[in-house]
From TrEMBL:
Residues 36-211 form the Ribosomal RNA adenine methylase transferase N-terminal domain. S-adenosyl-L-methionine binds at residues 29, 31, 56, 77, 107, 126. SUPFAM superfamilies: S-adenosyl-L-methionine-dependent methyltransferases. Gene3D superfamilies: Ribosomal RNA adenine dimethylase-like, domain 2, Vaccinia Virus protein VP39. It catalyses: adenosine(1518)/adenosine(1519) in 16S rRNA + 4 S-adenosyl-L-methionine = N(6)-dimethyladenosine(1518)/N(6)-dimethyladenosine(1519) in 16S rRNA + 4 S-adenosyl-L-homocysteine + 4 H(+). Belongs to the class I-like SAM-binding methyltransferase superfamily. rRNA adenine N(6)-methyltransferase family. RsmA subfamily. This is Ribosomal RNA small subunit methyltransferase A. Its EC number is 2.1.1.182. Specifically dimethylates two adjacent adenosines (A1518 and A1519) in the loop of a conserved hairpin near the 3'-end of 16S rRNA in the 30S particle. May play a critical role in biogenesis of 30S subunits. It is found in: Cytoplasm. The keyword Calcium does not apply. It comes from the Bacteria. PROSITE patterns: RRNA_A_DIMETH, SAM_RNA_A_N6_MT.
């Protein structure tokens, strides 16, 4: 039997039963609309072969829909009260899928592969909004088995993640997300599907992992340091913005030229490939 999904009445009943008072600090806005969770699952493309990592399962709305499509769901929830209740909710609403579900009480900002019972293949989550980008980047870094990610975040953050070079909203999250793979917007979600209703609209973002630049953590660290330096002073030319990172403006110019980048360009016009070449030229110059 497929799982039953949670609607407004079920969410209200679960919240009352648990005496949940949603907190803004933990980004606790729960989806109470079955069509929305169905849509998220269908956009994620997960199937019976997938082990889904869900961050922030909350009361279980998205979890139940995921259990209807994926082979297994491992959820990471920071709130112990919510995490403790989930197995019962899954038992009540998805009795046939109980064995395919695990919940780990942990912070998604620090969770490690060893904390999970199995390696996940796909991330699908309605992320807590105040830590959405660090959580997403942390999980892509720590869990190379994740082939895809489909996350719901604030619409503005979704736009920033999916932005391409040259625009005003292109920035650190846009470049770093592309280090892992292809990034695209996958739709918008209105406020009315949440309880409590947030002030802002939400958006879906997809990452298809390509790992074009490999999996070496040191390579990633060097590349991300160059990205952070370039965008810390985004109105400056790369020569000036990278002066501290490189040691001096002249040294920055040398490294930029070695990476075939115009020293007078601004970071907001550069693609992730440019930052990778820059970090590689800095690393080989240091050898
Ligand atoms: N998935 C549920 C839904 O769609 O209804 C809830 C989503 S709600 C936007 C975010 C969830 O993330 C909450 O359950 C919250 O307790 C949890 N959360 C917040 N910060 C977290 C963190 N650092 N690590 C893991 N879970 C977190």
């Amino acid at each position: 039997m497929p799982p039953r999904l949670l609607g407004p009445a079920e969410i209200r009943a679960l919240a009352a039963d648990l005496d949940v008072r949603p907190t803004k600090t933990l980004g606790q806005n729960f989806v109470h609309d079955a069509n929305t969770v169905r849509r998220i699952v269908s956009s994620s493309g997960v199937g019976a072969d997938d082990v889904v990592l869900e961050v922030g399962p909350g009361l279980g709305s998205l979890t139940l829909a995921l259990l209807g499509a994926a082979g297994r769901v491992v959820a990471v929830e920071i709130d112990p009260k919510l995490a403790a209740r989930l197995p019962q909710t899954i038992g009540d609403y998805a009795p046939d899928q109980v064995d395919a579900f695990d919940v780990v009480t942990a912070d998604a900002l620090t969770v490690e592969p060893a904390d999970l019972p199995v390696a996940p293949t796909a991330l699908v989550a309605n992320l807590p909004y105040n830590v959405a980008v660090p959580v997403l980047l942390n999980l892509m870094a720590k869990f190379p088995t994740l082939r895809t990610a489909l996350v719901m975040v604030q619409a503005e953050v979704a736009d920033r993640l999916a932005a391409t070079p040259g625009g005003r909203i292109y920035g650190v999250p846009s470049v770093k997300a592309r280090y892992y793979g292809d990034v695209s917007r996958a739709g918008s979600i209105g406020k009315h599907v949440f309880w409590p209703e947030p002030k802002i609209e939400s958006g879906l973002v997809r990452i298809e992992r390509t790992d074009r630049f490999g999996l070496d953590p040191e390579h990633r660290r060097l590349t991300f340091a160059a990205i952070d330096a370039a965008f810390a002073q985004r109105r400056k030319t790369m020569r000036s913005a990278l002066a501290t990172w490189a040691g001096s403006p002249a040294r920055a110019e040398e490294l930029l030229r070695a990476a075939d980048i115009d020293p007078q360009i601004r970071g907001e016009r550069l693609a992730v490939d440019d930052f990778v070449r820059l970090a590689e030229s800095a690393a080989s110059a240091a050898r």
